[in-house]
Amino acid sequence: MLWLVALLGLSIGVVGLAVYQVLATNRDRRTFQPPGALIEIEGKRLHYRVMGEGHPIIVVDSGQGGTHLDWQLVQPEVAKFTRIVTYDRAGYGWSDSGTEPRTAKQIVKELRQLLKEAGIAPPYILVGMSLSGLFTRFFAYQYPEEVAGMVLVDVTHERINERMPIAMVKLNERFDWLAIHVLPMMARIGLFRLLVLFDRLPLASDLFKKLPIAIKSAAQSIYAQTQFWQTLGQESAAFSVSIQQVEQARSKKLFPEIPLMVLSSGKPDFGGTQELLQIMQELHADLANESPQGVQIIAQKSGHAIQLDDPELVIDIIRQVVEKARCSSTA
């Protein structure tokens, strides 16, 4: 009888938390209005933000779990010398969830549609960070005539699992399993909302400290949403397919001869090790070799989120690529 009472109490508690999660999410959506514009793509709304004037246009994509908010130490400064677009991939930030698998091919398709519908014409300088480095490179392989330059910010490389120690590969596989099967359920009953409320969300708590104070609350509300964790799991589930798509595209198509700057973090971050840091720097050197104009730079003061740890460096690198692209267009 006691077990039955305990099970009933637990069930009521879970239902109560799930109801609270829905109500709190709706409250957050009323409180934190989209800073940019919403545009409908394939039956869902995607959120993007444009600042500045000039060409070529900078188009920025964020890492896994990232939003356009991650670039708000960079975007206003870049807007002083050219036009810059940041956006939230489907399922993140103020964008609706996607119905298709979150592969590189699908994400690039949605981004190009967004740019077209918003009247933002190429050529673009693509900026990719972490996981989205796969997407920006896939974009360049598939549509080289639309890309005038590229900045890669501590990005994922398709050969990362080949180079990492087996223990680290297993650790990543366990995280992916949790991201796909467990974390969305935890989010649905509001557990991440409680962790955010008490500033106890692993890794994200450190990230929040790096964001401008004015947008910290909005970022926390995003991390508390169920769709955020569902999307994180969907991107993890699609990771191997995205890797295959990039490998196939790289084997069949030449990377365009464009200004290319590859930024690598200079110190371990988010639980990383010195060994992993060295591996990533070597893989980034490989990416810099894709273009005759490729250059790798080590961000000595920064961990993984270089755009937050050392935004001045990222701004300067983007400026250099813009200037080189402008010279090439007038030559």
UniProtKB/TrEMBL annotation:
It holds the Pfam family Abhydrolase_6. InterPro entries: AB_hydrolase_1, AB_hydrolase_fold, AB_hydrolase_sf. One of its GO terms (molecular function) is hydrolase activity. Gene3D superfamilies: alpha/beta hydrolase. GO terms for cellular component: membrane. Keywords: Hydrolase. Residues 62-316 form the AB hydrolase-1 domain. The keyword Hydrolase applies. It comes from the Bacteria. This is Alpha/beta hydrolase. It comes from Pseudocalidococcus azoricus BACA0444. The lineage of its organism: Bacteria, Bacillati, Cyanobacteriota, Cyanophyceae, Acaryochloridales.
